[in-house]
Automatic annotation (TrEMBL):
Protein name per Swiss-Prot or TrEMBL: Uncharacterized protein
Lineage start: Eukaryota, Metazoa, Ecdysozoa, Arthropoda, Chelicerata
Source organism of the structure: Amblyomma americanum (Lone star tick)
Keywords carried by this UniProt record: Repeat
Record-linked InterPro entries: ARM-like, ARM-type_fold, NOP9, Pumilio_RNA-bd_rpt
Biological processes per GO annotation: endonucleolytic cleavage in 5'-ETS of tricistronic rRNA transcript (SSU-rRNA, 5.8S rRNA, LSU-rRNA); endonucleolytic cleavage in ITS1 to separate SSU-rRNA from 5.8S rRNA and LSU-rRNA from tricistronic rRNA transcript (SSU-rRNA, 5.8S rRNA, LSU-rRNA); endonucleolytic cleavage to generate mature 5'-end of SSU-rRNA from (SSU-rRNA, 5.8S rRNA, LSU-rRNA); ribosomal small subunit export from nucleus
Transmembrane segments: none
A GO CC term attached to the entry: nucleolus
GO molecular function: RNA binding
The keyword Isomerase is assigned to this record: no
Length: 202
């Protein structure tokens, strides 16, 4: 994993300051988020695991309304899931991503392909029925299924007893509880099996 250079650290420190200062309007915020997201392309892993830039990645994930950004980070983290589940800094960004993904799965209409599309949609949005359902792309669910199957290959007792990874594990369970009870049931059975196996060995 590449180290984050000083120039990049300085840029994202300024980004964090801008987050705290606020924005003139939604269009200003959307343009800013789009530019920041562009600067993370191909650097998601190192930026999320560096103590100088990880907080900014959390801020980006919390504020973005771009499904492309969420999916890009999720796909990158999945390629390095062992690291992201155990890294003392990166795991917190992973947790944030899962929590934001839960918000997306609960209210997909709040998100769009890009920041600008989201702003345009808000400006032209007609009143919606309370029970209107917006479909979530199948690819997003597939990413979660892959996460769960990968998590199952870890030592779950270690994950649950670690102060960092246990929070990540809780976030994943919350997602499944809302959107895929069947997968959650499978994961819980796997956890129970691991605990039972440990008890039998003692």
């Amino acid at each position: 994993m590449h180290q984050v250079d000083k120039g990049t650290k300085s840029y994202f420190m300024m980004v964090c300051e801008r987050f705290h200062d606020g924005f003139e309007d939604d269009e200003d915020k959307a343009l800013f988020l789009e530019n920041v997201a562009d600067q993370t392309c191909g650097k998601e892993l190192e930026l999320s695991c560096d103590d100088s830039t990880s907080h900014c990645m959390q801020m980006l994930l919390l504020h973005t309304r771009s499904l492309n950004v969420l999916t890009r980070f999720m796909s990158t983290f999945l390629e390095h899931v062992d690291l992201m589940c155990t890294h003392h800094i990166g795991a917190y960004v992973m947790q944030t991503l899962l929590e934001v993904s839960l918000k997306y799965l609960q209210s997909p209409s709040v998100y769009a392909t890009s920041e600008q599309e989201h702003t345009d949609a808000e400006a032209n949005e007609a009143p919606k029925e309370a029970l209107e359902v917006v479909d979530v792309p199948d690819g997003f669910y597939e990413l979660f299924r892959t996460y769960v199957n990968t998590i199952k290959t870890f030592d779950l007792l270690d994950i649950m007893s670690n102060s960092v990874t246990s929070l990540l594990f809780q976030a994943l369970i919350m997602v499944l509880q809302q959107k895929d009870p069947k997968m959650l049931s499978s994961l819980v059975k796997h956890v129970a099996k691991a605990v039972f196996s440990q008890s039998s060995d003692e």
